[in-house]
């Protein structure tokens, strides 16, 4: 029976008997009908360690680790092969021979009576039928129901940890005090990270998790139990490693921060999984916020995120700018042609802004604002202006420096005497110096 008990068997501070398979990480005692002497543990998957890592198993055994610990049992006394185990699939459950050191087992006497104070030798002292009843043989030498251990989806080397001086109780902290130790008592990744921090021990995921031939983690770990429960059988980060990698309902939208470490993502994913979504093949509608067309220029100038990861610059970006008139050459940029409409202003060719926005038909700056002038839109929401224009665009007309152009004040009448002037000047005087000279009287808000 080449099965597994390694992830817990080595780590108990107590010794176990025939039922030490409970240490193999099987079923939760709390999930069974009862965990007292005489009651079995049913093959139920409880809360706790992932059933994809530690699949549910059947343990028709009743055993109390705490009692054995109080009687002086030790881990190595029963789990003698644990310190030399190098694979999680090794069967570390003590056999009947290990139990005979204390229990005077005689298969010819299923109901054997022992002297007071000695360990029981009856079959039903340890064995159950897996359905809530104790087990006794119906004929001589009949075999009791056996522990069925599923192969863990994990790698673990007990020998390596033992040679480095790690005590069993460091990982299997609850074994000495627990009665029926089950799969919920198995070490979880949070405890492993206490040592696996990149300094004391490796943080490489593939050091513990199963891997595909190409080195990526094996994430499709569906079992019969998960399929019956309607689970996907897909191993995903829980968030315990980095806090930002939990694959919850909003992760597709909010994964940018976790995705900054590309090598971490590539532990499980192929690169084409990123490019399929970010390369234009799939365009999730919720990647950008609402009205992103009018706000995207700031991101585009910083190139954060990289627009070209999803959009083709020469067709998507340039094409849109030409169609809307926000282009130096909306005619299409044909070879040998001259730009007819620099940025959509000053001519009757396709324009982004309506006529009279800032200049008249002759190209002269309009001094008096009109209902269709840009001043109305700028006061309503200047963020729409900065989607395309830089600060220099405004200073061409609104600076007090006459060498730049006409000095139109963006402020209302008698602005210098208002409380708003004093508030803005006190909050950030540098903003005022964009238009006003350092020695200008307007800076005194009088």
Can you lay out the helices and strands and say which pair or pack?
Blueprint: H1 6-9, H2 65-70, H3 75-78, H4 96-99, H5 158-163, H6 168-171, H7 189-192, H8 224-228, H9 251-254, H10 262-265, H11 271-278, H12 292-302, H13 313-324, H14 374-380, H15 391-398, H16 419-427, H17 429-432
Which labels suit this protein?
446 residues; 17 helices; disordered N terminus; elongated; mainly alpha
Structural features, described:
With 446 residues, the chain is mainly alpha-helical. The chain folds into 2 domains: 198 residues, no CATH class; 122 residues, no CATH class. The chain contains 17 helices and no strands. It is elongated. The N and C termini lie far apart (93 Å).
Task: Using the alpha-carbon principal axes, give the shape.
Answer: elongated
The count of strands amounts to 0
Kindly report how far apart the N and C termini lie: 93 Å
Number of helices: 17
Structural class: mainly alpha
* Overall residue-averaged pLDDT value: 75
The residue fraction in helices comes out at: 10-25%
